[in-house]
Amino acid sequence: MADPHSALAEPGTLAVFGFGAGAPAHDEDPRWLRVALESFDAPAPMELWQVDAPISCGRHDAVRWSAGGGWLFAAIEVDERDTGGIEGAARQAYASLRQFMSARSERCVLRIWNYIANINAGDGDAERYKQFCDGRAVGLDDFFAQGFPAATAIGHHGDAHLLQIYLLASADTGTAVENPRQVSAWRYPRQYGRTSPGFARAMLMPAQDALAISGTAAVVGHASTHEGDVEAQLNETLTNLEALLTTADMPAGFDTHSSLKAYVRHATDATRVWEILQRRLPGVPVLLMHGDVCRSELLVEIDGWRFS
Fold first, then answer.
1. Which of 5, 17, 81, 295 could form a disulfide with 47 if both were Cys (CB 3.0 to 4.6 A apart)?
2. pTM of the full predicted structure?
């Protein structure tokens, strides 16, 4: 991994991300975030967000942020022990983000990432992901009343008490995109929890030149498919991604300028997932992460970007 100080010193750096326990702590700059997920690539590369504008940055209570050129990065980390569990942590985190965003000119949230420890622990409505959805909805109140952003929610294997959330927002609105092969997440039936997940399948950036793709797995309609078969799930996921690109009127497939993350539940599946992706998406940069998908039967999920 390169030194984050060098990346942060470059003009226009909005945010820099390091992955896993091997990433340096470097807490003094609010634009640096060590993501709780471990990468199967060693050493894991850094992820760099840059804009063509001067950058300002700071902290507002628990929220760290940076902004420039009409773009905004914001992040928050909450210790569940301070809030009585994951539901309280989600409620507090999203209430803090809502309060912070409401005072910003860059208040159009386009994309959110949520990383949750032990995401599938618990049964029925007591499953931690479902409790997270309950708390998030209360914390947001009506902030997304005009439409949901793209999002990812993945289980990390780091600090068991850490909820980690970060987002990308703009002064201008994007265009939400749904997948005709899938039921919209906010219309899921009751079996998936008291509170449906609130996210769009993808988000076209304000200039219509890039598509931010939400976490996408082997879900058809609202049902998980190919239980126990990681290869079949991965192929179904890629079919969903192709349908999403078509709906968004983006170029078919992915290219060397696309950047994707593949979240793999079982480390023993990582090599097989990598081999399939190399065959199906030759030349496409894919960062392979060790992460649990929000449904326990799902073994792999992909998110990322497609540029026009």
1. 17
2. 0.96
